[in-house]
Write a structure and sequence with these properties.
The protein is mainly beta and 307 residues long. It is 8% helix and 43% strand. Strand 14 and strand 15 (188-194) form a beta hairpin.
């Protein structure tokens, strides 16, 4: 006998900064639409399933989400309420998304006698929900390659040595290297350099560290631009780690040769495959998001973003 907003609020949605208005609180059971979207999260409003800008997001007997400092309002109803919000939660930045009506993801099939809506094909409902699903499940694993930076890495024990060749270094006044260890929730600045065609950096990790180290290479002028992103796997007391990086027209995986690789697009279609994952040609890939699976990772896919 509970209404769905009561269920979500009882399950702690307020902890995410999302309070769904219930019967008696007002701002519920509303049939409204909005074309007002937050532009602060590009994946949600301009994601792989399309742009939502300018389109209608629709409610049929929906409830509003109160705006708060703990959540990001994506589809705005007015200055106080949201129809679709997202939030981060916990020490590892778990992701949460919520909307106040089921009709945006309804396909008009259901129990006979009920009022049903094909919200999935109404306005931009489908694009926003699919972009948000992508943001929840995939974008947190974002893994970037770029042809403007050639990188090589050598890891030994707790030391990682990185050499960067930056083709368009004149575009930036400085280069920042950001680092995140596997148990850290955010990137921290590890070093800064005056922009140059070649930059070498030695990173001293915590003693006895073992696991993945993620690096972002940022080009700085008036703003900051991510120009490369790669992971280095550091094994304790190992002379060689596992490194992914772009090298010109190839994605180089510094691991044993003779491993199968498969690259698929976001719809699951195979785009490229081969028997040797040590040097993967990426020149033929268009800009976009792809999944990379290799023999070393078996069923684990890494997200590959080609700019």
């Amino acid at each position: 006998g509970w209404d769905s907003p009561q269920i979500w609020d009882a399950l702690g949605s307020d902890n995410f900064g999302m309070h769904f208005y219930q019967v008696g609180e007002g701002n519920n059971n509303l049939s409204v639409s909005t074309t007002d979207y937050s532009l602060t999260n590009d994946t949600l409003v301009n994601g792989p399933f399309g742009s939502v800008i300018g389109g209608d997001y629709n409610f049929h007997a929906g409830t509003m989400i109160q705006q708060s400092a703990s959540a990001l309002e994506v589809a705005l109803y007015n200055t106080s309420y949201s129809m679709f919000s997202v939030s981060f939660y916990g020490p590892h930045n778990g992701r949460v998304a919520g909307t106040g009506d089921s009709s945006p993801c309804d396909d008009s099939t259901g129990q006979a006698g009920n009022t049903l809506y094909d919200g999935w094909n109404e306005g931009i409902d489908r694009a926003l929900i699919l972009n948000a699903t992508y943001w929840l499940s995939i974008d947190s694993l974002d893994y970037t390659q770029t042809s403007s930076v050639d990188a090589s890495c050598v890891s030994s024990d707790n030391v990682v040595t990185i050499r960067l060749s930056i083709a368009n270094h004149h575009s930036y006044s400085s280069i920042a290297i950001l680092r995140k260890l596997s148990k850290e929730s955010s990137f921290q600045r590890a070093a800064s350099f005056k922009s140059n065609s070649v930059i070498e950096f030695t990173d001293i990790l915590p003693e006895e560290y073992s696991g993945t180290v993620s690096y972002k290479i940022m080009g700085i002028n008036e703003s900051s631009y991510e120009i490369a992103f790669f992971d280095v796997f550091v094994s304790r007391h190992s002379a060689a780690g596992k490194t992914y990086f772009a090298h010109g027209d190839f994605l180089k995986v510094n691991d044993k040769a003779g491993r199968m690789f498969v690259i698929t697009d976001i719809l699951g279609r195979e785009i490229l495959s081969g028997d040797d994952a040590a040097l993967i040609p990426i020149k033929s890939l268009p800009s976009g998001m792809f999944f990379l699976s290799t023999g070393m990772d078996k069923d684990i896919s890494r997200v590959l973003r080609i700019k």
